[in-house]
Design brief:
The chain has 326 residues and is of the alpha/beta class. Helices cover 29% and strands 26% of the residues. The strands form three sheets. Strands 3, 4, 5, 6, 7, 14 and 15 form a seven-stranded mixed sheet that branches. Strands 10-9-8-11-12-13 form a six-stranded parallel sheet, with helices on both faces. The protein has a two-stranded antiparallel sheet with strand order 1-2. Strand 14, helix 10 and strand 15 form a beta-alpha-beta unit. Helix 2 packs across helix 3 and helix 2 packs across helix 9. The protein is globular and about 65 Å long.
Amino acid sequence: MTQSRRVQIRDFGPPAVMTLVTETLPPPGPGQVLLRQTAIGFNFIDIYQRKGLYPLPLPTGLGFEAAGVVEALGPDVAGLAVGDRVATMNAGVGAYAEARNVPADKLIKLPDAISDEAAATLLFKGLTAQYLLRATHAVQPGELLLVHSAAGGVGQILTRWATALGAEVIGTTGSPGKIPAALEAGCTAVIDLNDPDWPAAFLRATGGRKARVVYDAVGKDTLERSLDCAAPYGLVVSYGAASGKAPPIDVETLGAKGGLYLTRPSVFPRNADPAALRANAADLFDAIARGHVRVDIGQRFSLDDIVAVHEAAEARRAGGAILITP
């Protein structure tokens, strides 16, 4: 039996609802492996679930993304061996832990060039950027994109990768102090969302040109006005809710604003099939090898400081990715 500390919540609410508990893990079952985690990723969906915006059955763990080493194999596991370095981003909630049993088909073997820390901070965010750039819309050279939260974990990856594909990216940020990070990631201009007329600021920055695609991870505070930044027949992608759940949009509004397309995709269906997961991960690893995507760890915390992790993220004090070590 293996002892593991993990984060648990019994009620939805502020960061303080998270507590550390110790559990005894049984041996891995059929199709499972015991994963000893060395690095854990943080994502905003963790906050949404902790607060109950995306409710889970209680009590529950939290976290989707981690890297580590295979310590034991359950029956009927093929293609993995004890000692393999692996990572996961869709093996179910519970990544805020020292160790856990996970389905083997949800694990991705890590190339030697990808460190555990890189995998734990890039896999979820990188695969999010991958489906946004490849599947939700196949970004083409010369296209103008508006990327909200361009200095955040996904935002920086999305910006760098889109720029490498030849697109022009205008970014936004809710903190003026993060503007340099967004510019360094490749934005040609960065709009401060604290400006009450930020759509007009966007149009001034582009000389009146509107975006082919608007990538909106903010939600409640931005989605309606994101529509004003999309070109006729352009696409607005709502893929996060950092400020709260996005408001409902009347379909007639889409017609009045230029025959716009609006979508709400998710990284999980895109990577539900094990073969698709590994193919998409290979695309991400290739982008990393080419320098289109890189690790940008903004802050590091231990699992004992998980409350501080969420506090920093909600206060938007953390630029780049947050790494949690067990």
